[in-house]
Amino acid sequence: MVRRIALLALACCAAGCMVLKRQDRVPLDGDAIGQVKPGQTTMSQVAALLGSPNEIIWSNGVVTPLELDGGTGVINTFLAQGEDVFARAYHYRYMLHKMSGLILIVFNVVNYDTKYDDAYVFFDDKGTVTHVGASLDSDVASYYSF
């Protein structure tokens, strides 16, 4: 009888639950994205409204990821092998990851949900916005129940 009580106490102590929330960068502001107007807003105005992008997509197809704390400045044009290349688009992304779990001695359950806010702002060769696209889904990330 003492062994059964000891095993039950051990099982109760070894069991547990966990909750985890991880986010990269800051949530995108739908109102700020709505202020970006094709044909009117410039590249510098986009940077002032939305901040530094996660990536710059250049007119030659090269994608330059920017580090969050790297201090890399946004450059509009540069010369690549005699070809004038300009920033074609900025990509902004926010990620929210929520995880919950039940941990038992013999059986474990872990559920996770990852959602993203994404925005793409496209520019012409003069640095004026031509198109804006956004998907703001991070607010629907949830902790699943068992």
Report on this model:
The chain is of the alpha+beta class. The protein has one domain. It contains 3 helices and 7 strands. The protein has helices at 2-14, 30-34, 43-50, and strands spanning 16-24, 55-58, 63-65, 77-80, 83-103, 108-123, 129-136. Strands 1, 2, 3, 4, 5, 6 and 7 form a 7-stranded antiparallel beta sheet that branches. A hairpin with a 4-residue loop joins strand 5 and strand 6 (108-123). It is elongated and about 80 Å long. The model is unreliable at 68-79 (pLDDT under 50).
What are the defining features of this structure?
3 helices; alpha+beta; seven-stranded antiparallel β-sheet; 146 residues; single chain; 7 strands; elongated
> What order do the helices and strands follow?
HEHHEEEEEE
Helix content: 10-25%
Number of helices: 3
The radius of gyration computed from the alpha-carbon positions, rounded to a whole number of angstroms, is: 23 Å
Instruction: Give the percentage of residues in beta strands.
Output: 35-45%
Largest sheet: 7 strands, antiparallel
Q: What class would the helix/strand composition place it in?
A: alpha+beta
- CA(first)-CA(last) distance: 32 Å
Got a strand count? 7
Q: Can you give the mean pLDDT?
A: 81
**Count of spatially separate domains:** 1
What gross morphology would you assign?
A: elongated
Low-confidence segments, ≥5 residues, pLDDT <50?
68-79
